[in-house]
Amino acid sequence: MSEYKLFSEFKLGDITLKNRVVMAPMTRSRAVEKNTANALIAEYYEQRSEAGLIITEGTSPSPNGLGYPRIPGLFNQQQVDGWRLVTEKVHEAGSKIFVQLMHTGAVGNVENLPEGAKVLSPSGLLVSGQMYVDGKGMQDHTVPSAMTTTEVKSTIQEYINAAKLAIEAGFDGVEIHGANGYLVEQFINPKANQRTDEYGGSIENRSRFAIEIAQGMADAIGKGKVGIRLSPFGVFNDMGEFEGIDEQFKYIAEAMNKIGIAYIHIVDHSHMGAPEVPQRVKDIIRNNFKGAYILSGGYNKERAENDLQANKGELVAFGVPFIANPDLVTRMKKDIALANPDQNTFYTPGVQGYTDYPKAD
Hints:
By secondary structure, the chain is α/β, with parallel strands linked by helices. It has ten helices and 14 strands. Helix 5 (203-221) packs parallel to helix 6 (245-259). It is globular and about 55 Å long.
């Protein structure tokens, strides 16, 4: 199988990946103690280190960004120490690992946040739907506070600080979560951003939050250690298409190219019922960004290989298949049938449906 491009080495920013298979970021809600990674989480990622690159579950750079139950953070020393358990195991197993920094913004319930933290968003707009709270079940999202300009700037600093902590914890880099309707995309999309300061209104202003985070991280830890995930046309959390969407993502791609970050990671959720990301938008991003391009969205081995051969991207991310198939790369190489995951344990605490999926051999 060595002729498969999918299984060939690739230089990403400052590092060399042993293959072009990426484990996509997936929230698993196992950070049960003080939003801190632990030995169980380290075991989970170690089991899946056949991937050339692992991108962790969404990890909050701020106490204010912990809208989901039991998701990890990266804003204090205890969390740095917890993540170091993970990075050491993954590196020992021969893989590379980026932490995905995800601030949930308006998506969340205040009861999931630590004491003193608050649900924030660009314009204080309530997100439809509900959020799980331990002990209470599904609860309405909390009405967020509209961020002051000072809070916007301090949140940008939280991201930059988290990037520094990520390097201290042993990560090879960081991915900015600018997709799926969380805080960064809440700034990008005018459906959520009705601000009138320098962070709202025009395409340039709505892009500013993401760009200042990326520039600040590049300055702090090196541009080759930074990536961003985007989901144009994604509909999660009240997002969706808007007027000027092509120009918006062209502007962001050009800005990220100028900063020189390592990659852009595109989410296409059409396999889950969302509108397909038009090829023209993917082409706009691809043509205006010279770094690596990570494809994701319902891929299997053959489709991944075909898209790599067609030069649609450099790397391909696999999400759900990695849950029940820790040895996904081996299974793809040997054409071994994939196991199906138990969806009932995607977000439950504990070992079941997490580290108890066997390898094929």
